[in-house]
Amino acid sequence: MIELHGMHMELEPATWKEAAQAASDIIFGCVRAKATVSVDDLLKHHEKTIDDFFPRPQSDLLIARWSTLGSMAIEYSIKDEMPISQKTLVTTLCKKQHDYGPNNILRFEQQGLMIRVWDKISRLDNLTQKDYDPEVEESQIDTLLDIAGYSTIGIMLRRGWFRLPL
């Protein structure tokens, strides 16, 4: 944010990393210190997001939904004493963007993110309801990091920042 003649103005991010930082600022700004988020809360919120999105794919409500979902994933990680830092989130997103490139997200955009997040929340739900060792090497923290990451990308897409250069 810059100040010019007494007015506050936000600068548009110039790079993908700056956009990821700005979008994650929105998410981390929603994190509550004393939250008690459950997997069921994540599922219910995501179902509302899907219900809001599919009839109105360009809804401005999406930024609020993605912000809440991402912050809930962060809160869940804090509650389970495996907190995700904003630095870890942004660093991981930039590494994955470098490895995957933009086309895997751009092909299906918001719709693809909705499905990916549904898969992650369903996996988290399954992992927390069973007492066993998972067959796939992906921890709960990795799953929560992915949910927060997809939420960050959802904000970036909606704001028009996702296509910025890495």
Short note summarizing the structure:
The protein is mainly α and 166 residues long.
Blueprint of the fold:
Blueprint: E1 2-4, E2 7-9, H1 16-28, H2 39-53, H3 61-79, H4 86-100, H5 103-106, H6 109-129, H7 140-159
Antiparallel strand pairs: 1-2
Word description of this protein:
This protein has 166 residues and is mainly alpha-helical. The chain has one domain (15-159). Helix content is 64%, strand content 4%. The chain contains 7 helices and 2 strands; from the N terminus they run ββααααααα. It has a two-stranded antiparallel ribbon. The model is unreliable at 1-9 (pLDDT under 50).
Give keywords:
166 residues; mainly alpha; two-stranded antiparallel sheet; 64% helix; 4% strand; globular; disordered N terminus
Query: How many strands?
Result: 2
Largest sheet: 2 strands, antiparallel
Individual helix count? 7
Arithmetic mean pLDDT: 87
Structural class: mainly alpha
